[in-house]
Design brief:
The structure is a homodimer of 411-residue chains. The first copy, chain A, is α/β, with parallel strands linked by helices. Chain A folds into three domains: 91 residues, Orthogonal Bundle (Arc Repressor Mutant, subunit A), CATH 1.10.10.10; 142 residues, Nucleotidyltransferase, domain 5 (2-Layer Sandwich); 154 residues, ATPase, nucleotide binding domain (Nucleotidyltransferase, domain 5, 2-Layer Sandwich), CATH 3.30.420. Chain A contains 13 helices and 15 strands. A five-stranded mixed beta sheet of chain A has the order 5-4-3-6-10, with helices on both faces. In chain A, strands 13-12-11-14-15 form a five-stranded mixed beta sheet, with helices on both faces. In chain A, a hairpin with a 2-residue loop joins strand 12 and strand 13. In chain A, helix 10 crosses helix 11 and helix 12 packs across helix 13. The radius of gyration of chain A is 23 Å and the shape is globular. The N terminus of chain A is likely disordered. Chains A and B meet through strand 12 and helix 10 of A and strand 12 and helix 10 of B. Chains A, B: This is ROK family protein. Chains A, B: Belongs to the ROK (NagC/XylR) family.
Chain lengths: 411, 411
């Protein structure tokens, strides 16, 4: 129950959202979601909804729906598509779909050994993607951010040549980020108190948000593919190990926004020293560098082929990393009773070898394992989850608040 | 925004709740909350609200408020108290307070070495409390439940002699409980698949709910005393160790209701065998039996006096238990970014000795400890938290849905 009458302006906002989401829900049923090219969903592809369909589904009058649809088309959010020729009497109505050449989201990612950018359109299509692999640790934060700004400018230019308008950017960083975009600490990058929007020169006036990479990857995973479990732990394996915790279908950020530091959960309290100052953190057993060292392999790209070739040292290294990961993850399942564990980052292509050890630890250590099986599976988006989740967050903000976008383009 | 017009019946339900909570909020401001005798809150004690005050606070008409208040008085939920004599013109209005002789909640607790019952009235007063200390492990579940039913009958008789009506019971159990009240597993009691409502013969028709003891204790703690942090970890130290996780002011139960199994988080993956079948669980380091064994002490009641006397073996045992608890708790804080850790059960009277070790591990292991201090403190309710939380849950259900209670007494 609301405390008073709904004002006209907020009623229009509400109804714009209702109408847009009707078209969006068709787009997602037809398989166009925030997913990479790997993932093609199957299922019935119904015709896109007409104005009359939307009026029927929302209980709004046809006149109201038509006026709202006109505004959404003018703002570049919806497109009318011609009906398929049909036998019988009457002119079939045009269908409404999310616009593939309206506003788009720019995702950026700063990680220890790569930088990435991608552009996702309103209908979930990936329209641009670039990854630059290089160790970012030697560079000063301002140098790294200047290169990210360059990636962003390239991505924006590519998007604009395709007729898109980049509506905003979200930046994924492997560290602790304040709501204002200050990176308090990114231990594996060696960053402390780095102002990311400032260092990006706010990308020429584009709205910029900054968030933890595991959080954005978990959001990417949540919205990719078919509806999965409502509660899961997304584990991001990189040089550091982060986690995004999804509870009841929503990202859980913690009281101060700093949840998910799985990499610093202790596996052995007196284990090897960690960069964070503590001992025996999971990162020291299952982080990328620990795996490469134990496997005697130079780069992460070599791990999968050498595991496939059955090299015993590599297999042993993965089993050991998986067991330590399983100990920490079993603790999380004991505490949070999540339904699934998603292996992301470098863990995604290695899930075939890490998964069995993780499952074994869960089976042995989780008190409820006998009644409540926990699914352990690779991420659908793999290494792209964070940058795709970042771009998707920008796009979903438009889905959720189309009136704000219309107000921006009207001025 | 609601989907349609609010029906008259649900409008009345809603408004009954509004009116009752106005009186309840005065009662809680004046210090009458679900707290034990230990805790006397200070602060201004305003006069209880009159019908006119409630009309002003809720924007309902005076006539509507008066009709609702009459119903709440008739149902035994509100009581009118006479105004203090006042100088000047006009007859001062009567004040409305929660009834101290209307419906009450019965809390029951089954733990490894004690059984407990308590009755809490609508205004939060504890009207009856009984604890029977005895090892429950030798008894069969049906024998234990028969004794609990006896405790419940005594409590109910005591309450009725004071003019109260017991509205329902909630039972705290140290184990995994299904929504129907089946105890799937209580490892330290040795229970598997025990139907608690059935074993209690449903207490002569009383509505009975069953819940995990740490969950109920966390709820007790959440509603006891002044408004505390919105996110905290309540740790229940008994023979087993459980946790209740409060996030954003609400108990987090997990996807299937089985969250909070802190006692089975691994401290050392290859440590001593646990009753659950795994190795190195926290319970093996910081459970009641591990502490007593290390301290060379026979019963938990002896721990505090001997720690106060400075016995070095006891102090070392507590420091060691605190350190292991701190390792596990630091992992939770890294994951969930909670603002406080509440030491409950046998940990509450020992917090002076356990707290420093827990704080040291948090300080060393939590990545954000430098910016986000985490409060570590004893439970306000001590060993009574679960049974008080159970009784309080029954009472709060009446606060939240007074119309349901009125419908019950009307038939």
């Amino acid at each position: 129950m609301t405390d008073g009458p709904v004002r006209q302006a907020s009623l229009r906002e509400h109804n714009l959202g209702l109408v847009l989401r009707q078209a969006a829900s068709w787009s997602s049923r037809s398989g166009r979601r925030l997913a990479g090219p790997r993932q093609e969903l199957e299922g019935e592809v119904a015709r896109p909804p007409s104005r009359a369909d939307i009026a029927a589904a929302t209980s709004l009058t046809r006149a109201t729906v038509s006026a709202l649809v006109d505004d959404l088309i003018a703002g570049g959010l919806l497109t009318e598509v011609g009906p398929a020729p049909r036998a019988g009497a009457g002119r079939p109505a045009a269908g409404l779909v999310l616009s593939a050449d309206g506003p788009a989201g720019l995702g950026l990612e700063i990680n220890v050994d790569y930088l990435a950018a991608c552009v996702v359109d309103l209908a979930g299509g990936v329209r641009h993607r670039e990854v630059r692999r290089a160790d970012q640790r030697p560079g000063r934060p301002d140098q790294v951010l200047a290169e990210v700004a360059g990636l962003a400018a390239d991505a924006r230019a590519h998007a604009e040549r395709q007729g898109l308008t980049v509506a905003g950017a979200a930046v994924a960083v492997p560290g602790l980020v304040t709501p204002a975009g200050l990176v308090r600490l990114a231990p594996n990058l060696g960053w402390r108190d780095v102002d990311v929007p400032d260092g990006l020169d706010a990308l020429d006036g584009l709205p910029v948000t900054v968030d933890n990479e595991a959080n954005l990857a978990a959001l990417g995973e949540l919205h990719a593919g078919p509806t999965g479990p409502a509660s899961f732990l997304y584990v991001s394996g990189e040089v550091g190990i982060g986690a995004g915790i999804v509870l009841q279908g929503a990202l859980f950020r913690g009281a101060r926004g700093w949840s998910g530091e799985l990499g610093h959960v202790a596996v052995r309290p007196d284990g090897p020293a960690c960069r964070c100052g503590a001992r025996g953190c999971l990162e020291q057993y299952s982080g990328q560098e620990a795996i490469l060292r134990a496997a005697g392999v130079g780069g992460t790209d070599d791990l999968r082929p050498r595991a496939e070739a059955g090299e015993s040292v590599v297999l042993a290294a993965l089993a050991e990393a998986g067991a330590a990961l399983g100990v920490a993850v079993a603790g999380v399942v004991n505490l949070l009773d999540v339904e699934a564990v998603v292996l992301g980052g470098i863990y995604a292509p290695l899930a075939e070898w890490l998964g069995p050890a993780v499952r074994a630890e869960i089976g042995q250590r989780v008190l409820t394992a006998a009644w409540s099986p926990v699914e352990v599976r690779p991420s659908l988006l793999g290494g792209d989850a964070a940058v795709m989740g970042a771009a998707g967050m920008v796009v979903r903000a438009i889905h959720d608040h189309p009136a704000r976008w219309l107000a921006r383009v009207a001025t």
